[in-house]
Design brief:
single chain; about 375 residues; alpha/beta; two-stranded antiparallel ribbon; about 35% helix; binds iron/sulfur cluster; binds FE2/S2 (inorganic) cluster
């Protein structure tokens, strides 16, 4: 058995509140209310514990982390503890003075999500009028403040044909990195799968576009490319393996091995209000449950990729098969793989249904 190493990064989900309503949001369907959120002092204690545990990076996320008025104070606190800070934001709640305040607090990096290139399409997907124009403005404030910028573009059947324009936009905005991330189907995205699933032909065109842009923009823009699981033959190593490198703290303080872990049945996740991060990372049953390879069934147990993909994604395996220990259906050795690919092809060939937007309360069709 390999020794458990300290985590590299903490994803701090400061809040589930968000002015956007993206239909592929990875937040759970049951969102934490504002009243349940950890207060400033508790978050500061969490960051102290994270630094002592060996964490190097803190990613401020949500929901929309800028919905928290104490964001600057939390960034400043992390900075004094030597933690590298990255703000993952929709940008629409940030103005010039706030960006300057965040930079002054010691923020290192900003990642702005874009829903598309075309403003009308982007605003429709995010469910927020004027969002695209605001994001472009804020990207300018990020550069003006001397911060590194990453553009994050979540791609799917309703924006993939804009990929060339998205790449040009990232260059124009002065981003050094672009994440072209095909939707991963958890949370709200699973609910909207048929509205988001690209065709195999769309995917192949997108891959060719990324390949040629990488060659053309070498030295200007780094492009990270996350392919959709459903057309792959092997799964990805979700979170780099369960309990190996990363963990999330939810708005109310639950410590989770991944953003969708709360969808798994029979798991009890511990909370920062009850136990220290070190004890949770090294000792909680939830982190131990799928750590390493000991939990794996066949064929994973004797597969030569078991320490490469760590058995794929537990949340996806459960969502699609009903079994938490099941082989991830993205793997061609899963009995569910053919059905998965067939359903992706069928859904992408049919007319896209209306989005079910991410909203507090009941999930409602558009
Ligand atoms: Fe990964 Fe298991 Fe498939 Fe092997 S059998 S590639 S370990 S999911
Ligand atoms: Fe939970 Fe992949 S999202 S293991």
């Amino acid at each position: 058995m390999t020794a458990v190493e300290p985590p590299l990064a903490l994803l701090a989900e400061l809040t589930h509140r968000c002015p956007l309503q993206c239909p592929y949001c990875s937040n759970p369907l049951e969102l934490d209310r504002a009243a349940a959120e950890l207060d400033t002092d508790t978050w500061k204690r969490v960051f102290d514990e994270a630094a002592r545990l060996g964490v190097l990076h803190v990613h401020f996320s949500g929901g929309e982390p800028a919905a928290r008025k104490d964001l600057e104070a939390l960034v400043a606190h992390c900075s004094t503890r030597g933690l590298y800070t990255n703000l993952i934001t929709s940008a629409v709640l940030i103005d010039r003075s706030r960006m300057q305040a965040l930079a002054a607090a010691g923020l290192n990096h900003v990642q702005i999500s874009f829903q598309a290139h075309d403003p009308a399409n982007a605003d429709r997907i995010g469910g927020y009028a004027g969002g695209q124009a605001r994001k472009i403005e804020v990207a300018g404030y990020v550069r003006e403040a001397g911060l590194q910028l990453t553009v994050n573009a979540v791609m799917h059947r309703q924006n993939l044909d804009e990929l060339d324009d998205v790449i040009d936009m990232a260059v124009r905005l002065g981003a050094r990195r672009l994440e072209v991330a095909h939707v991963q189907y958890y949370g709200w995205a699973l609910k909207n799968r048929a509205a988001l699933m690209p065709s195999r032909a769309q995917l192949e065109r997108a891959t060719a576009t990324v390949d040629s842009a990488r060659a053309r923009l070498k030295g200007t823009l780094v492009i990270d490319y996350v392919v959709p699981d459903y057309y792959a033959r092997r799964p990805k190593a979700c979170m780099g393996g369960w309990g190996r490198r990363f963990f999330n703290v939810s708005p109310s303080g639950d410590v989770l091995p991944c953003h969708a872990a709360s969808t798994l049945p029979g798991m009890r996740f511990e909370n920062v209000k009850d136990r220290g991060l070190r004890e949770i990372w090294y000792g909680s049953a939830a982190f131990e449950r799928f750590r390493g390879t000991g939990w794996m069934p066949e064929p994973c147990r004797s597969c030569d990729r078991r320490e490469t993909d760590w058995g794929g994604c537990r949340c996806q395996a459960f969502a699609l098969t009903g079994g938490v220990d099941a082989v991830d259906p993205a793997c061609e050795f899963s009995a569910h793989h053919t059905e998965l690919v067939t359903s992706a092809e069928r859904e992408s060939a049919a007319a896209a249904p209306a989005f079910i937007y991410r909203r507090f309360g009941a999930a409602v069709p558009a």
